[in-house]
Amino acid sequence: MTGEDTPASGSTEGVEESVTMTEAGSQHRQDDSGRARRTLGEPCWVSLMVHSMEATQRFYGELFGWEFRPGPQQLGPYVRALLDGNEVAGIGRMPGSRRLPVAWTPYLAADDVDATAATVRHCGGTVGVGPLDAADAGRMAIASDPAGAVFGIWQAAAHLGMAVSGVPGAPAWNELMTQDTASVARFYQSVFGYKEEAVVSADFDYVTLHLDGRPVASIHGVGRALPRDRGAHWMTHFEVADVDEAAERLTDLGGQVLQPPHDGDRGRKATVADPEGAVFTLVRTADGRP
């Protein structure tokens, strides 16, 4: 899927075909045809639109061990990244006429993307692309919340989304970075039905979003620390076997370390950017959840 099947950052040791989603990942339902479906609002894919697909594929291939195969091409060249044969992310070419930020974009699952897009508008968000079909893969839209953070909406058909999550080389978590959680938490709750679990702290504004009793994403209110040049944005965390080694390798490949590796409450992580400036987090956790 791009942002535009969309439009959305290691070692692959230990990744097996039988690997399933972690606690932060998928719990599938079945539709009338018996196909597995994801819960409304569940993060199901990440995608990146860039200027040089060839250079970007080399970078992430070396960093995470990804291989690539073509995806839907309606809105331009697009490939899906594979980790040991399992689809984990998408990369597409930015339309030459548009000067958009290069950023990883998470996709949230929907049973009916048109209805969800209408709810986004009703709740104060914006739909910038779609809804539209991505060949037989599914139907998608690109939207933004009232604070301006961009996300995708994905109604699966042939393409259900990520096959694995929370293993080295795959997405592990998605976190919304915004000024304060109160300004947008109600929007996501209204659109996707999340239940919220707040961290009670005088100096830490953080909410975990739950579906069916399990954590699937989070919102972090960072106040004045929100980058002026980026505004509110979703941050994708990619699991790696060794954060320090991955950060060093990323630098050698032409990326940039924005926040050096450090230990947090749930694991070791580093904030980094690829050669085109797409920011993401390298993380090493026990359960795939920062």
Defining key terms:
single chain, 15% helix, Glyoxalase_6, 2,3-Dihydroxybiphenyl 1,2-Dioxygenase, domain 1, 27 kDa antigen Cfp30B, disordered N terminus, 290 residues, mainly beta, eight-stranded mixed beta sheet, VOC_core, 2 domains, Glyas_Bleomycin-R_OHBP_Dase, 4 helices
Number of helices: 4
- Series of secondary-structure elements, N-terminal to C-terminal: EEEHEEEEHEEEEHEEEEHEEE
The CATH class of the largest domain is identified as Alpha Beta
Terminus-to-terminus distance: 26 Å
Biggest β-sheet: strands ordered side by side in the sheet: 4-5-6-3-7-10-9-8
Low-pLDDT runs of 5+ residues are: 2-35
**pLDDT averaged residue by residue:** 87
CATH hierarchy: architecture of the largest domain: Roll
Number of domains: 2
Gyration radius from CA atoms, angstroms:
17 Å
Helix residue percentage: 10-25%
- Estimate the strand proportion: 35-45%
Q: What is the global morphology?
A: globular
Largest sheet: 8 strands, mixed
CATH topology type of the largest domain: 2,3-Dihydroxybiphenyl 1,2-Dioxygenase, domain 1
DSSP E strands, number: 18
CATH superfamily of the largest domain: 2,3-Dihydroxybiphenyl 1,2-Dioxygenase, domain 1
What structural category do the secondary elements indicate?
Answer: mainly beta
Write the layout of secondary structure elements.
Layout: E1 29-30, E2 36-37, E3 43-50, H1 53-64, E4 67-70, E5 78-83, E6 86-93, E7 104-109, H2 113-122, E8 126-134, E9 138-144, E10 150-156, E11 171-178, H3 182-192, E12 195-198, E13 205-211, E14 214-221, E15 233-239, H4 243-252, E16 256-264, E17 267-273, E18 279-284
Parallel strand pairs: 3-6, 7-10, 11-14, 15-18
Antiparallel strand pairs: 1-2, 3-7, 4-5, 5-6, 8-9, 9-10, 11-15, 12-13, 13-14, 16-17, 17-18
Domain VOC: 42-156, 170-285
Pfam family, one: Glyoxalase_6
Region (Disordered): 1-36
